Structures are given as C-alpha cells and as structure tokens.
Amino acid sequence: MATRLLCCVALCFLGVEPTDAAGVTQIPRHKVTRTGQAVTLSCEPMSGHNALFWYRQTSVQGLELLIYFQNQAAMDDKGMPKTRFLAQMSNKSCSILKIEPTEPGDSAVYLCASSLATAPRRHPLPVQKPSAS
C-alpha cells in the first residue's frame, strides 16, 4: 500500500477574543491537507489596525516573520518563500496567505496578528567613549 504524506497547517490566533467581540479573525482555524494541494488562509485584522503580520512557527526554525503589511502595502517580505507562497492584502483590509502546492516542509503553525502601527526599524547609534586626556 502506498504511503501518502500529509501536510499539517495549524493555525493560532494572536489577540483573538470571543466571536462577539472585535478581534483578529483567521480562517480556517485548523487545516490538514495532502502534499501537493493548495491551502488558502485568510485573516481580518482588528478594527482600526493598519498593520497585519503573517508568521510561521516550526519546531526546527521557531517563530519567523513571513511578511507584514502596513496600510495594505507589503512592507517586509524577506521571510516569505519566493516560490509557492503568495500573500496579499485587499483594500477591504482582509489578507490571504496561499501555499500552492504544499510540501512536507510547509507543516507549521501559521499565525496572523495585527497592530495599530509599527515603529520604523532603526539601528542603535554607536556609543563613543570620550577620549582620555
């Protein structure tokens, strides 16, 4: 009998509240699929938030940022695989993350989060010690 590989995509929520309260909405909650299938995850940020983040967490890599959007524009996609993964943000503030086709290495927890804004990344300035006179 042939063995089939399955990809498991587990979803978690950051900042989720009960369904009757405003919060991040991520659909589906759990997804198990066969290798080679397509998976589409959607996320709606909390009301008033203009930054949305997609993360992936594996037992090997830990938590890693895939991509983040600010005001519906992709700001940082360095963590996003260049093939098979696609993330978009619509003008209605809903984001999708699509993986097609899935591979065994895609098994992970995929997380969506939102925030009001993000601070620009700045490198700390070097500290100079006063010269000894």
TrEMBL record:
Name of the protein this chain belongs to: Ig-like domain-containing protein
Signal sequence annotation: 1-21
Gene Ontology terms: cellular component: plasma membrane
Gene3D superfamilies: Immunoglobulins
Keyword Signal part of the UniProt annotation: yes
Family matches, as InterPro entries: Ig-like_dom, Ig-like_dom_sf, Ig-like_fold, Ig_V-set, TCR_beta_variable
Keywords: Immunity, Signal
One biological process term in Gene Ontology: immune system process
Record keyword rRNA processing present: no
Domain of life of the organism encoding this protein: Eukaryota
Lineage: Eukaryota, Metazoa, Chordata, Craniata, Vertebrata
Domain Ig-like: 18-128
